[in-house]
Structures are given as structure tokens and as C-alpha cells.
Please model this.
Amino acid sequence: MSDAIRPQPGILDIALYEGGKSALDGAANALKLSSNENPFGPSDKAKEAFLRSVHQIHRYPSTDHAALRAAIAEVHGLDAGRVICGVGSDEIITLLCQAYAGRGDEVLFTEHGFLMYRISALAVGATPVEATERERTTDVDALLAACNHRTRLVFIANPNNPTGTMIEAAEVARLAQGLPPQALLVLDGAYAEYVEGLDGGLALVESRANVVMTRTFSKIYGLGGLRIGWGYGPRAIIDVLNRIRGPFNLSNTALDVAEAAVRDQDYVAQCRAENARLRVWLAEALAELGVPSDPSLANFVLARFADAAEAQACDAYLQTQGLLVRQVAGYKLPHCLRITVGDKSACRRVAHAVAQFKGVR
Model:
């Protein structure tokens, strides 16, 4: 390739994103606990909508996502005109960076924050900036101290991935209040549905002009394979994002299945309750084996080992037992493994395998 043909500044600084492993060589039935997927899958109503969608796959989808936006607004008590839908919440994050950051600007996030914040910042030529966390938890004071006149976007996930920790609504509000006037706060609520009664920042979006919230159908709704997310924010900001959003970014299938899923809140409640019960069981079982974790409010636990070597060795042993979990050295947590909360059988398999690993060392 000619030396004169070069990508935009920042793009070659992006390390390729690596998702959780989904297969093991020589293991046909590996148990995947590496991507925080809902072990119970989508609701029956969502599955039925998927099957019906086959009759319209030859048609272009709507460009305005009106039916899905209306359903989201009805369920959550929102203004449908301020809802935007995307290819997972990742696309909303990308659109925000494209619209509001560029060369000379800074995009701020916490040191153990979701990797897409850094990737999306670099993709538009902006400078990614990390603020320290306090014991693997978002530190509002550190974020505010890192702000300056170049800060354009501030991302926090609440609960956070991969730590599972979260901060209270009052702290989120304090962060929004303290940002410089040109900065936009983005509340990543990918795991918000796992917290009983949590609005994911909706009230703050309604009361302020500098806050946007993102959500996903990939986690508790069990639709990771369809790639559907949404965002909610001030009307002026949503208008800007829609100007650069691809007109047919979501298929008819994705739109119909997501609408059915969001209307089935009984299923969401069942998944939330079962996840909470099994999450506590798994965390306590690991703690009894000398593997602690912070209280998690998501659908995974971040298991902490003595050092990176022990974490890697445990991961290797789990793979021999057909168990796939996530190493998180890329999140600056090399001594940890992120373990999705599976069903009862999966949790017991993990605890048993870790016990065997600890016993042979």
C-alpha cells in the first residue's frame, strides 16, 4: 500500500477489541461465561416475534424506528421523540464521539471503564483520558479533577463493566453538576436492569441538558446476537445523532424482537431475581475458597486472585474443565477474572472447578 494512503490520526493506536472466548479447541460443549450473556436467553414473546419476522426480511426496515421507540417510551415513561436506537449501545457511543469529539478534544472515562470508550475516542482523533477509580469504583472527585476546557465527553457505566460496582444517584448528579459547560455526561446503563428500581439516569436526563443515557438489549433481554441498543437525551442532542446515524441501521427482525422484549417486563423481573440469587451464591462460594470479589450489581462477578499469574493459571484450568471466563488484563485488572453468572448448574460447575484448582496448587 502506498505510504501516502494513511488512516486518520489515532486509528492505528487502537488495539483490536477482543470479546470473550466462545469456543475451546477439542471441546464441543464448552460453557461460555465470558460475555455476560443471559443464560436463560430471550423471552418466549421475543422468540415468537423473531419467527414472525421471516415474512418481512425482503423489506427495508423503517428509518425512524417509531414502533420500537414508542414501546421503549411507554415502558419507561419517556418522550419517544428523545429516544434513539442503534446497533447495540456501542453504536450510540460511537455516534456521540463522532458528533461531539475530535482532534484537540478529550474523552474522559474511568481507569477500568468499558474499552469502547477509548476505541471510539481514538477513532475520531480525540484524546482518551482515564481517571483513577477508588477500590474499583467510579470516583467522582477524580473525574472532576481530570476535566478541563478540552473535555467534551465523560463516560461512566453504572453498574460498571468489568467491576460490577456502582455509585449512588446523588454522586452521578454531583458529577453532572460539576462538569465544565462544554462537556456531556454519558451514562452507560448496559446493566441497569439488573438493579431493582434503578432508572439508569433517566431522571437526571430529564432534569439536565448535559446528560445522555444509553441502554442495551444484549444483556438481561438476551438479544446479544441481534445487536440492539438505545439512548435517551435532550432533544437537540438526539437530533444531532440522528443526522449521522445510518438510516437502516436496525433490521426489521431486530426492531420487532426488541419491541416484544421490552414489553415483556415480567420476564425481565424473573431474570433479575434469578441473577441476584445466583450472583450472591457464586460470590459467596468463591469467597469461601479465598477468591474475593466486590459486591456486584450486574450479571457477573469480578473474581480477584493473589496475582496475575494465579488468575491466568486458574483461567487455564477452567478451560480444561470446559469453562470459558474472561481475563481482564486489558482493563488493567490482570489479577482478576470476570465470570458471568450462569444458571444454577453453571455456577456450581465454576465453584467446583475453582475449588479443584485451589486444591492442586
